[in-house]
Structures are given as C-alpha cells and as structure tokens.
Amino acid sequence: MQVAITRAVSPSIIHCELTHLERQPINIDLATEQHAAYEAALTDLGCSVRRLVVQPDLPDSVFVEDMAVVLDEVALILRSGAPSRRPEATSVAEALGEYRELRTMQAPATLDGGDVLRIDRDLYIGVSGRSTLDGIRQVESFVMPFGYRVHPVEMTGCLHLKSAVTQVGERMLLVNPDWVDGGVFEGMQRIDVASDEPYAANALMLADAVIYPAAHRATGRRLEQKGVPLRLVDVTELMKAEGAVTCCSLIFRT
Ligand code: CIR
Fold first, then answer.
1. What is the secondary structure of the chain as a DSSP string?
2. Protein residue with least CA distance to atom 10, ligand 1
3. Where are the domains of the chain?
4. pLDDT for the residue 98
5. Ligand 1 pocket: which of 159, 162, 163, 202 to mutate (most atoms within 8 A of CB)
6. Pocket around ligand 1: residues whose beta carbon is below 6 Å from it?
7. Mean pLDDT over all residues of the chain?
C-alpha cells in the first residue's frame, strides 16, 4: 500500500515563512478547500491518506515534506533550517515511527525535505538557505549503509531544490534552468519550465499521473506534449505561502 501523510492547513498560515515572495493575503477557506482537493487527488491516484492533527500555532505545518525523508528502509527526521518550523517534526516523527525505523538529525546541522530529490538510489540534495553541508553529511551517514548515493547540488534563486527541479517521468525531469544546472542529474532527459513561469518546476509524480498546479498553463502544456499524464490541482493559496505540490505530503510504501 502507498501511504501519503498530510496535515490540514493551519489557521495561522498567513504568518508563514517567506523568503522569495512578498506577503499576500491568503484565503484560509479556499486554501483548506484546495488542500482537500489535493488530498482527494492523492486518494484517486492510489494513496491511503493519513492526515496528522492540525497545528494551529505552526503556520507552515501543512508542508509536511520538509520534516522528513522516507526511504524504503528508514525514515530520517530532519532539523529544519527555519527555526519556527522545528516543532513540526515531533508529530511527523510519531507518525512515521509506526512504519519505519527512524534516524534523527542532530544540531547544528539543518536540512529541509524540500531540498531532497530522490531518483532511485541517488539522493540529490540542494545546498540551500535551509540545508547545510553538515546536514547533507548527516543524511549521507544515515543512508550509505542502505546503498544510497548522496549528491550535494548547488542552486540559486529559490527556496528548495524541488522548487527548481522535480521528476516527471522514469528518466525525465522538469527544470527551471535559471535556478539549477540540469546537467548534474546524470542520465535524465529534461523539460524546461516556460520562461514566464519560474515557479512551475514543482510536480508530484505518482505511479499513474503527475499532480501538477493548474496555474502553470504553459509548462503544463509542455508536459502534456511530452506525454506526461497530469492530474491538475488548484494550489494558488498554498503557492502564496511559497509551497506547491510536493511539499504537502510524505509518500511511501508500506
Ligand atoms: C517555508 O518557507 O518553509 C514555507 N513557507 C514553504 C515551504 C514549502 N516547502 C516545500 O516546498 N518543500
């Protein structure tokens, strides 16, 4: 079975962390509706959605991806590069502990799950404002015994590596070439985002379709032309909090 861990939008999301975006009003009811539709897409595509308890005092807590990396063999509980977000990890660790052995990142290292792109047994990790080389080394020490390779990736201009690049097919990546050099991902074909859609590189690939923000129309058309099956979702309110589609779930097999 495939499990997707999610968490409902916090009523305090208007106080979220923002790094590259100006603060805009967020319509909480609409954000909640959009998030529920995202969960419905996960369910339709074969995931059993397990929703964690809402955290009213943790504005960014809908973005569960940043708290952990879940592999078949082990789950890594991370220490976010945003101090305001660190308390989110406790409940994520509690839930994941039911499915996996845990390894927990130790201070002063920091790393956000949004910086980790796993392609088979390669973990590409963005050296970002949130994720330190020390954090990347800790991940490496956790996963090397299971045969994973870790590759630090330079990036610029965006919050997380997966704002700049995600996987959309077995050997296919969707890339914003202004933010990351797609050449570092060996053996992968690349589709570039449309130049007027810089935030369009975040897509969530499942077995039968790719969950993708409807807002990025031009890039969405490019993906369809390449034969990528899309399941479009509206996540405009979550995008105002600098999130998109990968960040709202942790997906793994049981
Ligand atoms: C933050 O700055 O941490 C949140 N406002 C957005 C996190 C988005 N996470 C992700 O893309 N993995």
1. -EEEEEEPPPTTGGG---SSS------HHHHHHHHHHHHHHHHHTTEEEEEEPP-TT-TTTT-GGGGEEE-SS-EEEP--SSGGGGGGHHHHHHHHTTTS-EEE--TT----GGGEEEETTEEEEEE-SS--HHHHHHHHHHHGGGT-EEEEEE--SSSSHHHHEEEEETTEEEE-TTTS-GGGSTT-EEEEPPTT-GGGG--EE-SS-EEEETT-HHHHHHHHHTT--EEEE--HHHHTTT--SGGG-EEEE-
2. 247
3. 2-253
4. 98
5. 159
6. 16-17, 19, 60, 63, 65-66, 82, 85, 114, 159-160, 241-244, 247
7. 98
